[in-house]
Each structure stands twice: as structure tokens, then as C-alpha cells.
Amino acid sequence: MAVINLTQRDFEQEVMRSDKPVLIDFFATWCGPCSMVSPIVDEIAQERSDIKVCKVDVDEQGELAAAFGVSSIPTLVVFKNGKITAKQIGALPKPGILALLDK
What we know:
Elements: E1 4-5, H1 11-16, E2 22-27, H2 32-47, E3 52-57, H3 62-67, E4 75-80, E5 83-89, H4 94-101
Parallel strand pairs: 1-3, 2-3
Antiparallel strand pairs: 2-4, 4-5
């Protein structure tokens, strides 16, 4: 499944109403650790059809990032049934990101 570039406008539909768990990567293009996490998140999106994977550019979607208390990046957030089930600040290897989905 392709990665969805999430905006404030489509957040409700893509995340809150999703019938699948949603992994959101809050990032910025200038962020070094974000650049390490991004290809891992892309890989997970291609491998896992049972989840939805989204990315939020905090520079373009500052209100959305602020709504979830994102003050450091990268921040990974997992939603299930419209509720946050896991949140991780900082870069993680692939097994760590997959473990967030199991919480």
C-alpha cells in the first residue's frame, strides 16, 4: 500500500475513520534522523497491507503536528480505532517500529 501524505483536511477520513491500524510518521525534510526512518516507513507500507501508513511534514502541517504534541521529530504515532495506542519520539530500527504496531 502506498504511503499517504496526510493533511489536516484528510486526517479525519484517513485516520479516525480507518478500519485498519494507522502508523503516522511526523517528519521534516531537513531532519537527519527523519531521513533514516523514512525509507523504513516506506518499506513497511509496501510490506504490510493490514495497516495504513501516513506521513506528516511538520513544516507544512504545523497545526496537525501541534494537535498531537509533536515537538521533536521524528515522532511515530499508531492509531487503532481512532485512538492513539503507541507514540515514539526519535528514530527506531524496523523491528522497533513494527513493535509499536503490536501495542
